[in-house]
Structures are given as C-alpha cells and as structure tokens.
User: What shape does this take?
Amino acid sequence: MDLHLDKKTALVFGAGGGLGGAIAKSLAGEGVNVVVADINEESAKATADAIAADGGKAIALAWDIADLSLIGQQLGEINKVFGPVDILVNNTGGPPPTPAAGQSPADWSKYFDMMVRSVISVTDALLPGMRERKWGRIITSTSSGVVAPIANLGISNSLRLALVGWSKTLAREIGRDGITANIVLPGRIATGRIVVLDEQKAMRENRPVGDVIAESTGWIPVGRYGDPKEYGDAVTFLASPRASYITGSVVRIDGGLINSI
Assistant: This one.
C-alpha cells in the first residue's frame, strides 16, 4: 500500500529513543524527510545516521522540548533544510514514579511544563502553517496509564491524561482544515528500557530473566512483546493521507494488554 507520504516533512521528538526512533525510521522508509529531535544529541545523530544508511533523509537536532525559547530558532533551522513541518510526533519523557498524593507544587509545575505545556507550545507554533496548507498531522504518544492508571505513577497518569483531553478538543477545532490529531499509546514494546526493567526485576527477585519475560508476556493476549517497528508503522499509517478520517482517537498499540474497554 502506497501511503502517499513521499517528500512530507516530519518532526519527531524523543527520536533518539526506542519508540521515537522506530517512528522516525518508519516515516523515513515511506519517503518522509525526518527531523530527529532529542535532548541527547548523540542519540539523535545515531537515529539520523541509521536512516541515512537505509537511504532515507534525516537531520539530527538536539532539542530540549521543555525549553520554550528554542521553538522559533529550531523551526527556522528545519525550514532551511526541509521546509515546513507537515507531521508532528509529540513524544516526551516522563517523571519518576510517584504516588498521586503529597507531591510538591514545584514538581507538578516542573513536569507540566516538560510534558504538557511544551507539547502544546510546539503544536501551536506549527498549526498556522498547517492550516494555510490545508494539511497536517498531530500525533501524540502517551502511556497506557491514560486509560488504565498505573500504580505509583500519579504525576504521569495525571499529566498524560491532560494531553488526551487537549488532543480530542484540538481535533474538533482543526478537522475542517485538513489536519488530524490523535493519541497513540504503547503496551509492552521491546525497547532497550523494557530489557533493562526485566533484567532489574530478575536481579531483585533472584530469578532467570527468561522467567520474568515469560511471566510478563503471559499477560499479553498475543503472547509476546511488541516490536518497536510495529509501533512506528502504526504511527506512520496515522500520519498518512490513508488515515484522513481518523481523528480525535486514542489508538492502543498493545497486543491487547490494556485491561479496559
């Protein structure tokens, strides 16, 4: 299936990591010019180099999304190389584990700025151009905690859920401009982080790591972890003209793991 994405330009945040990197590579495989943005410059460059090695077009951009003063400068750099951004993939890091109660106002503000305000600000900077061109995609990667809150992730569950409400409201405002806004959320995807978490659990419990993986995948209806490429490919489809009637949605890429309707 031709996704008709050739020569579009995508800005992918967190693209030096497992999920963001998979999204960037999948988009590049469909002919998209990809801006690989990450707070870690070396990680961003590694993803961009991998894309180039496969014949795609990408540039690496060191970008702390929480620093709102960088938005104009960074978008200017992108325009010089690839032109305006057609596809925005919002993908941020999260706070450390915390209960919901007893967190300081300073921590709530800090992570709101990093996870919510930053996403909204970058999106607002790109929307006028998308509206003018009558085409755009706003895809925000969050967490399964927005539909099934995860214990001891009080700040994360709360702030990521704010993005769901924002995206749904935005979708109603921009649909007639040819722009879609969707949320995607992962289940257990086999990124480097999952490997580390399984290894740490095995060490804590003095068990073989294979037993920990078997236990974890036993809760997943398809019986395995997701491949990062599967996550990236699903996002790439949502970014394409083929998905032009999908907006305001929350799309689970979880192998059936999330235990809620």
Q: What stands out?
A: The chain is about 45% helix and 15% strand. The mean pLDDT is 95. Residues 136 and 179 are 4 Å apart (CA to CA). The helical segments are 18-29, 41-53, 71-81, 105-133, 154-174, 192-205, 209-217, 228-239.
